[in-house]
Design goal:
- 69% of the residues lie in helices and 0% in strands.
- With 242 residues, the protein is mainly α.
- The N and C termini lie far apart (156 Å).
Amino acid sequence: MASTKKSAAKSPRASAGGKGSGKQASRPVRREVGAAVCLLLAFFAAFGYFDIHALFIDFFVGLLKGLLGYGFWAAPPALLAAGLILAFHRGRPVALRLCCALLLPLGLGSVLHLILLKDLPGAASLWATGRAMESGGLFSGLLALGLVCLFSRVGAMAILIVAALLMAAAVFNFSFKKVIQAFRSRPRYEPEEEPERPQAPARARQRRAREKPAKQERIEAREDTGELPRPPERRAHSADID
């Protein structure tokens, strides 16, 4: 009886452990599904570059153009980057990179809205002008108008450009901290003076040979002018005469 009670007491724990191990063994597939969806949407959004018409393509491309306007040109690459980030996450957190990838078309549309348009259209016409690719669309245009009201046109452009660069750096997993550390830890080389090269013996002999006749000529010229006394002439010995 005691053994049956112990086995009965252990069975719920064992069953609970089995359920837990089964849950741990099963891998979540939410990111893989999201990657497939993003890649599929990037594929269909790219049809808007080539003026291909179909029911879903017209709806989806028109929606992107109406919301993002000029930012539509960056929508297919952004969806492709989001799909690749989700597909190759390798268990790492990718929420920040994913959000930055999807927000890049919005930032690009706002920047081009401020650069290409001298007179900013009203909010009521942003959807229609965005679908016609004549503005930043509804979302990008409203963001640009709001920043212009708060920080002026030049300030809004500066903020949007800096934000777009930071988002692009986050998408490509680029760390400014690592760049600064690599710059500080670079090896520093001190300049070294080059030693003088000794002259070749042959060249030295040639130079002395060229200088000797010139020196002898100067001495003879000074003797002729009387600046230097002439050396005494040697007398001939009797042995030489004989």
